[in-house]
Amino acid sequence: MKITLVVAMAENGVIGRDGELPWRLSTDLRRFKAETLGKPVVMGRKTWESIGRPLPGRRNVVVTRNRAYQAEGADVVGSLEEALELAKADAAPEVAVIGGGEIFRQALEIADRLSVTHVLADIDGDAHFPRIDERLWTVVSTEEVPAGEKDDYATRYVVYQRQGEAN
After folding, report:
1. Which domains can be identified in the chain, with CATH numbers?
2. Recorded E.C. number(s) (predicted)?
């Protein structure tokens, strides 16, 4: 099963502020939906709460240390490993890890692919994506995306493949 991290991050690594996305990127949300539809999505509790509902057309898996936590419309597990086991049980060929910062830190070590929207700005925030080590990751595609009518910033969409992994 392929593990893909799907993230939008500012040039300074920021991915969130006060439990929310610190930008409005309608163009990227459409890409995110296309990228994750039909795949299990794994997220931390804070990301789940910021979305506020299950993402339709995807198995939603929420990772939290609070075993009593309830997430209507999602499976709740205690670790990233448990989340990945659920996806394997579904025979999913790919799972999308969608945040937040702590889940990304854990998943980066085992991910096969990174689907990154680089927001072309430095933005204040309190959640960050780990640095992408260019010795471990190879850029396989890049697309410049100008800011659309409902976008705060222009972006660059980049797909990274772990070195030594087949596409």
Report:
1. 2-162 (3.40.430.10)
2. 1.5.1.3
